[in-house]
């Protein structure tokens, strides 16, 4: 299947589910499980159609643009640990960077980097902006940036929703795959 066709298919699945996991899961839809691949996913990231996060059990979870904007007021926070603040401020200043650059410039250990980035992914403050170095045909590194950077140049009219609109949208979009308790965790954890 051609990359454009796979990207179109993934777009439809993001509209349907609101989110896809990267890896296969017995109960939730995944990029591979619905017929996508790494290259089609990267084209959606680079076009700002999907947002990289770790909001589901600390697993890589891609959000549709619409679901991201509805979850953002519930998830985003600006109270960071020192390492999280360093990473966020660095990305805000330089625009985007790969893992190796962030670790070396900020003198972060691998553990400190991973822990801080996971927290920033969960809170929707940092995301993948584009592909980095190609490792093989099915994988590459990622270039990270702030959510503000990801939102740049988006012309979507409804970026700002009321809490009531967002709550309704999130419940409607996720109720087929998640319990009410799980949906609340998506919103408030």
Q: What would the average pLDDT be, to the nearest integer?
A: 91
Overall structural class, as computed from helix and strand content, comes to alpha+beta
Q: In which order are the strands of the major sheet placed?
A: 1-3-2
CATH class term: Mainly Alpha
* Rg calc: 16 Å
Low-confidence stretches: none
Oligomer: single chain
Residue share in helices? 40-55%
CATH superfamily heading: Winged helix-like DNA-binding domain superfamily/Winged helix DNA-binding domain
Going by CATH, the architecture would be Orthogonal Bundle
Total E-strand runs: 5
What's the N-to-C terminus distance?
38 Å
Q: Tell me about the biggest sheet? A: 3 strands, antiparallel
Q: Report strand %.
A: 15-25%
Number of domains: 1
The name of the CATH topology is Arc Repressor Mutant, subunit A
Structural summary, described in words:
The chain is of the alpha+beta class. The protein has one domain: Arc Repressor Mutant, subunit A. The protein contains nine helices and five strands. It has helices at residues 3-17, 38-46, 65-75, 82-94, 99-106, 110-122, 147-151, 163-174, 180-188, and strands at 19-21, 50-56, 59-64, 126-136, 139-146. 32% of the residues are buried. The mean pLDDT is 91.
Short structural description:
The chain is α+β, with helices and mostly antiparallel strands and 189 residues long. It contains 9 helices and 5 strands, in the order αβαββααααββααα.
């Amino acid at each position: 299947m051609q990359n454009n066709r796979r990207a179109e298919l993934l777009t439809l699945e993001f509209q349907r589910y609101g989110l896809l996991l990267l890896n296969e899961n017995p109960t939730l839809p995944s990029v591979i499980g619905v017929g996508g691949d790494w290259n089609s996913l990267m084209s959606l990231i680079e076009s700002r159609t999907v947002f990289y996060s770790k909001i589901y059990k600390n697993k890589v979870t891609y959000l549709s643009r619409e679901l991201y904007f509805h979850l953002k007021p519930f998830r985003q926070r600006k109270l960071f640990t020192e390492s999280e603040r360093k990473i966020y401020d660095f990305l805000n200043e330089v625009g985007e960077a790969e893992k190796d650059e962030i670790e070396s410039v900020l003198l972060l250990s691998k553990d400190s980097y991973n822990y801080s980035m996971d927290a920033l992914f969960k809170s929707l403050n940092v995301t993948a902006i584009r592909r980095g170095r190609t490792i093989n045909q099915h994988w590459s590194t990622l270039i990270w940036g702030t959510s503000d950077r990801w939102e740049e140049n988006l012309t979507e009219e409804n970026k700002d929703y009321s809490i009531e609109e967002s709550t309704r949208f999130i419940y409607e979009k996720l109720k087929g795959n998640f319990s009410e308790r799980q949906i609340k965790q998506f919103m408030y954890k």
